[in-house]
Amino acid sequence: MLSKIRKFSSSIFAKIFLIIVAIPFIFWGMGDVFSTGNKNTIAKIGKDKISTQEFINFVQSNELTKNEINEEIIQSLLYSFIGQKLIEKEIENYGINLSDKSLSLIIKNNKNFTKNNNFSRTEYEKFLLNNNVNAKIYETYISNENLRKQLFDLIGGGVLPTNFMVNNLYDKIYQERNIDLINLNDVYKKNLKISDDEINNHYNKNKNDFNYIYKTINYIKLNPKNVIGKDEFNDLYFEKIDEIDDAIVQGENINNIKEKYNLTSLKTESFNEKGEDLKSSNSDETYRKLIKKFSIINDSEPTILSEFENDYYIVELIKTENIQKDLTDISVKKKIINNLENIKKRKKISKMIADINSNNFLTNDFYTFSKKENASIKNINLKNLNDESNLKLDLVNQIYEAPTNKVIIISDLFLIDVFLVYIKEVKNKKISTDNKDYEKYFNLSKTEFVSNLYKSYDIYLKDKYEIDINFKVLDQIDNFFR
Q1: How far apart are the first and last CA of the chain?
Q2: pTM for the whole thing?
Q3: pLDDT tens per residue across span 369-402
């Protein structure tokens, strides 16, 4: 439970401030978790204890349903909660405040509360009623938001980027790059050979990966014709649907309901636990989506009434079984070959990356490799950082991170696309101060500048505060809400 928090505990400052101010802070550590501790304390910031009840109230204030709350939501709420506490401490530390007079002026100058260009108490009260909030809560919210703004203005307000910084950002986006590119998948496709012994060994070592849970169901589609004998969605039809739903709740099985309502067209289907790999020959996409919806059925509730695209279905689980697929199954052999090819491919790519990083694979090696492997070279001109006319955007971004006259490897996470690239030429771009778009890139540069300031502030907070979380209590809270 809450394992992800433990895994990502080293990044808590980043998570907190990403949620609070939506700025990409870098990852930094936090203190040790409680080995023991008071159940009334959920966390400590320095010497200050934060009560468990306060965090519970915070969770409840978000008005989430039981179905909406999961491990990730609890994690996110925790970061947000601690982030608010850190900001409160910083506001107090810097002596930032908002007087009643200033708060009054903020509210009175809000255009939502004016009538004939003057503040209207009636409009203000109407706003509070429409939003189901009282004046005290709303004014506290306005005050807290202003205090937060003052804090972040103190950190990053008033900074202005130089012309050099604006042009540096502009160049990052719009510089042109000419590259030579070799598709490594084409190279490895010719060279990677997988033997039968390798396939057998991999299967025997990973048999559990080919053990699948299959469900078999019976189902009946309900429509006005087979329920009430008419092609009409009237009150009688929906009354019968309610009756069938009640019968299912009372424990009636599909056969009893079928006989009671004289229903026909009972069908049977078998599929894996994801609603895929259907045993029937029906390949219709809508049918597959229907069956996938049925895949949620389990032994705890073996008969259900399900709705799909405005139709109702009675669905009953007949059996659940584990099936061990062997090498006679084409899909198993195909999966093993794909896994082995990826393993070999990763080894080759890792070695090439190591050679590149140690300067043992340079420009001449790029072209030598092409000749040796009889691999075609494609020349591409990238117009800017967002040019995806030849390559996916994430691959283009990798190219733009490397300097000119550099050989690199770019790829996606699963090596579906993997290329060896030589960056032949970079044409830098500038923007003049009289350009109509200069202000746009001035503001972007300012945002980047402020973001870097926040990263420095994040490091400062990491050194200033030690955060300890009582994970035992957090586990209990997670279980309580779920």
Answers
A1: 12
A2: 0.59
A3: 999 999 999 999 999 999 999 999 999 999 999 9
